[in-house]
Amino acid sequence: MATTRKRVTIKDVAAEAGVSYQTVSRVINHHASVRPETRARVLEAIERLNFRPNLAARGLPQQRTFIIGLVIPYEADYLFRDPHLLAQISGIDAEANARGYNLLLSTEGGSGDDLEAFERLLRNQVADGVLVVETARSHAGCALLAREQYPFVSLGYAPGAPPSCAVHANDREGARQATLHLLKKGHRRIGIINGPPTGAVQAMEERLTGHRQALQEAGLTFDPTLMVYGDYTRPSGQRATEQLLALPDPPTAIFAFNDRMAMGAIWAIRAAGRRVPDDIAVIGFDDIPAAADFSPPLTTVRQPSKEAGATATRILFDIIEGNPPPATEVVLPAEFIIRESA
Amino acid sequence: MATTRKRVTIKDVAAEAGVSYQTVSRVINHHASVRPETRARVLEAIERLNFRPNLAARGLPQQRTFIIGLVIPYEADYLFRDPHLLAQISGIDAEANARGYNLLLSTEGGSGDDLEAFERLLRNQVADGVLVVETARSHAGCALLAREQYPFVSLGYAPGAPPSCAVHANDREGARQATLHLLKKGHRRIGIINGPPTGAVQAMEERLTGHRQALQEAGLTFDPTLMVYGDYTRPSGQRATEQLLALPDPPTAIFAFNDRMAMGAIWAIRAAGRRVPDDIAVIGFDDIPAAADFSPPLTTVRQPSKEAGATATRILFDIIEGNPPPATEVVLPAEFIIRESA
DNA sequence: CTGAAAGCGCTTACAG
DNA sequence: CTGAAAGCGCTTACAG
Hints:
The structure is a homodimer. Chain A has three domains: about 10-50, Orthogonal Bundle (434 Repressor (Amino-terminal Domain)), CATH 1.10.260.40; about 65-170 and about 305-330, Rossmann fold (3-Layer(aba) Sandwich); about 170-300, Rossmann fold. Chain A contains 14 helices and twelve strands. Chain A has helices spanning about 10-15, 20-30, 35-50, 55-60, 75-80, 85-100, 115-125, 140-145, 170-185, 200-215, 235-245, 260-270, 290-295, 305-320; strands at about 65-70, 100-105, 130-135, 150-155, 165-170, 190-195, 225-230, 255, 280-285, 300, 330, 335. In chain A, the strands form three sheets. Chain A has a six-stranded parallel sheet, sandwiched between helices. In chain A, strands 7-6-8-9 form a four-stranded parallel sheet, sandwiched between helices. Chain A has a two-stranded antiparallel ribbon with strand order 10-12. In chain A, helix 10 links the parallel strand 6 (about 190-195) and strand 7. Strand 2 of chain A pairs antiparallel with strand 2 (about 100-105) of chain B, so a sheet runs across the interface. The structure holds a DNA duplex (16 and 16 nucleotides).
């Protein structure tokens, strides 16, 4: 018993309005060729019968589903904790909604298989195209999509196999500005809290490059002993900072590659009886909502996350509709925000 | 130009395998009646052509879409920040995945309209049923679903208009245990940090009831001046606690109705130069992942969030398949966890 | 401006 | 065990 609810179809509406069902279809699709009175009659009938067009049935002849997928090659509860991603989703959802599309979520769903999130979507042609969150685990999946010529856009940096496009912030320049600020304040030993050493995301490489570039401009060289690793969570930032503080010659400033780790850094610094920014300055990255509320308010590099989501979605629609993407890469500005932690 | 990619259909497979396309359909659907050799030939052909069944086409004759919706009547970036919800989603996703269903996300999508998330789903029959996150803003939407006889299950407490079911933890008992623990430790003035005063969620009412019940068992009466309000975020817990500490006769213990506010409470207590739990004990609710990592580790009431998501999803499938739900309400156990904050 | 026909990719009884 | 027919709810040319 799949359904007991009786469906109202286009034919019921046609009968009610006294027209052919093709005419009903034209009204639904806003074809200009329908006489106003006819349209009105049909609209009334639709209203009266509470008719809802069936998306799947509309899609069949049109060869599309009106659904876009969002692939997150992790367990939902892991990555979802990332406020930056959540802001992106908010942008995606608003944009999809505006275009009459629905958003499907595809995670690894407890399968333990990185590719599962991708294969699931491919397996049954359920989406017209997909947005992929770039992670260390998404490269194989993107390659798979490219091989199948499946329309997709990467949120992050990605192998630009056509048809596809990558949307990300200018990580390098953002990191460069942050480091420049620290340098201007007189800091010479700057600790870096990077993402995980293995399977790093391209964005982290870029931030590191920007940092080194700024050092170089100031005539300094990058000291690898000042770089430690976290896993993007707050506790990991705390632990990483403890390592930094235990150094024979500890840094006077710390640049964490995301805000959550920066917050952890501040905790660790305080726990060690020192103050931010007086004893040690701290800078984060992302400008998540909690950054401004933190104590002290976090100096950070803002990524336009929501906008990145919306932009990626718009580009995906272009690709789906057969228009070539505007570029293989869209770089959004990153903005350095000075608050009180540095 | 919707698509340039040529689709491989059931007919292509049939031709390749030298059988009728109905036979291919039977193989896909695991009908027992296909001769093993025939099945093998078809399977090979499927493999060779890289055939993917079209979900929408399968669904049309079956009157279903193989999609379930998750309605979150807020902007995506607001509610998603709730770790408890994220754990639920993780459970939903795993369960849907196991049953071959896809998960559609429906938020208010920047429309500013609470009902939009519901109407979107109804508008085009895109999902076979929906899961609704109970919030102060979801009641009207649930009524709408019930009126349309749309299969849905509420994550939380909800008006149990059939066909539907509500899945939640035993909030009352959990809160009772927490308060009992505080009482046992000798606390007599217990501050409460509740959710927002207007548009409260039923779960908060239940927690309050459990708290009052415990007080009553101890022969105490509830003092309304000890109850303040937050909005579930950490900073709000901090502010609420400042109010409590400013009282002429401040509480010696604080019970916050979620973990994030409890964390804010601990910050505020420390900022006031006092210690947790020595000067003031603090208890939270939910047991989000960060609770155990907090300093001090948070004493709290655990909700089986992931399991609640999975259970609700299973029940939704029952309803979709025409089986009546096992109950109109499923209550999962809440477990009181003693750590160090109280 | 509006009907009648054909078809989207599949499933479901019905025969054989 | 496997074909042939009809149909799911819609759209898209094609006539008129």
